[in-house]
Amino acid sequence: MGQPAIEIKSEIGPLKRVLLHRPGGELENLMPEYLERLLFDDIPYLKIAQEEHDAFCQLLREHGAEVVYLTDLVAESLTDQAVKEQFVGEYIAEAGVRGRKRTAMIADHFLSMSTHNMVSAMMAGLRKAQVRGYGRKNLTDYLDDYYPFVLDPIPNLYFTRDPFAAIGHGVTIHRMHTVTRQRETLFAKYIFAHHPQYRDTPVYYDRTAEGSMEGGDILVLSPQVVAIGISQRTQPWAIEQLAKRLLSPEVGFSKVLAFDIPKNRAFMHLDTVFTMVDVDKFTMHPGISSHLRLFVLELEEDHLTITEEEDSLENILKEHLKLDTVTLIKCGGGSVIDAAREQWNDGSNTFCLAPGRVVAYSRNYVTNRVMEEAGIEVLTIPSSELSRGRGGPRCMTMPLVRGPL
Q: d(Cα 373, Cα 327) in Å, to the nearest integer?
């Protein structure tokens, strides 16, 4: 038998296949006055961001991973003309466009392109100046005349970790916390419905669910245990619904650990404050180093049971992962100043290529040194522009296949 389409039983198994998105025109449609709306703090310089991203991809390939790109997978999912037209219509509707004539005008604009170029253009957003014949046709147009876009760009796409997650042999397609990121999950919907390699993948959570969930909060700690952050962007109800699927006999996980983390931008997702770098080693932000509130979700017959635990992070991990020792590697070492600075640049957000081998941003040199002192091999990548999006190497990757430990 060939390699499965999806196989993720851990955070640290040898990386075999990973999904990325090379930053594109969406970054060149960022404007200072609309950064907050699009969840950005700054405007990366696209040329350098692409060079940094290419260096990252090359590093992954050099260590044995197959890199696949989001744009390619979406384009390969739209070979049927009817599916392609349905995708365009759904995308335009979710972008908030109203009116039959206006919708048809935008659809014609996209459908006149090759499929690959069309997908890239949809990701980049659409300026009013790009659409022939676009003008003020109704009261809304007059009121929004100052706004230069017909369709907003989707600049967070290079953080492929969040719109969906690979768990076991299946995926979760998420309802994003913010409207500006919800269109990202539409690409995943069509990949897992129509791509010849991925269309038979089980879907454990759907983007139409009521509760928001994002992939940065999901960590597959072992073949038995999944950790999920109760965060600013992942709601408790969503975790319960996903836990019922993951703990079912057909999926086969034995417990879900729900970590209650602070609900603010600095602690946006669980993986911004906590990642696994070896069998018994983890990076963490010092802000969660004290006693941690955690809930253990298990399935008894058809009933979900919830047990609250309050203990140190070390003891929690040792108990549920059946480890004799646990090493927690603090972002920034023991310095409050270094931890705050490097947390801002995702010092805790490492990406594991194999047990004890991780990718990190070179700028987080204090945390990188501490990891090396703990016996971790740290491979660094440049990040002067990529880091402006407030996401690290784990945020930028969605592993599709990892080997066994």
A: 12
Residues comprising the chain, all counted: 405
Three-state DSSP at 390 gives coil
How are beta strands 377-381 and 357-361 bridged, if at all? Answer: parallel
Q: Which residues pair with 170 in a beta bridge?
A: 167
Alpha-carbon distance of 85 to 80, in angstroms, equals: 9
High-pLDDT (> 70) share of the chain, %: 94
Query: What mean pLDDT is predicted for residues 362-373?
Result: 94
**CA separation for the pair 235, 233 (Å, rounded):** 7
- Please tell me whether residue 75 adopts helix, strand or coil conformation: helix
Q: Could you give the CA distance from residue 163 to residue 397 in angstroms, rounded to a whole number?
A: 11
Q: How many Cα atoms within 13 Å fall on the side-chain side of residue 284?
A: 17
> Active site includes 331?
no
* CB-CB contact of 259 with 275 (8 Å): no
The yes-or-no verdict on residue 178 having pLDDT over 70 is yes
Amino acid in position 34: Y
Query: Does residue 392 contact residue 293 with C-beta atoms inside 8 Å?
Result: no
Nearest-angstrom CA–CA distance, 355 and 13: 6
DSSP 80-118: SHHHHHHHHHHHHHHTT---HHHHHHHHHHHHTS-HHHH
Q: Which of 57, 331, 352, 395 is catalytic?
A: 395
Q: Evaluate whether 170 touches 203 at the Cβ level (below 8 Å).
A: yes
Other Cβ atoms within 10 Å of 22 Cβ, number: 18
Q: pLDDT by residue (tens digit) across 255-298? A: 999 998 877 665 678 888 889 999 999 998 887 765 568 999 99
CA-CA-CA-CA torsion sign (265, 266, 270, 276): positive
- The β-bridge partners of 305 are 298
**Helix, strand, coil distribution of the chain in percent, nearest 5:** 35, 25, 40
Rg (CA), the chain: 21
**302 burial level (CB within 10 Å; 0-12, 13-18, 19+):** exposed
CA dist 99 and 28 (Å) reads 28
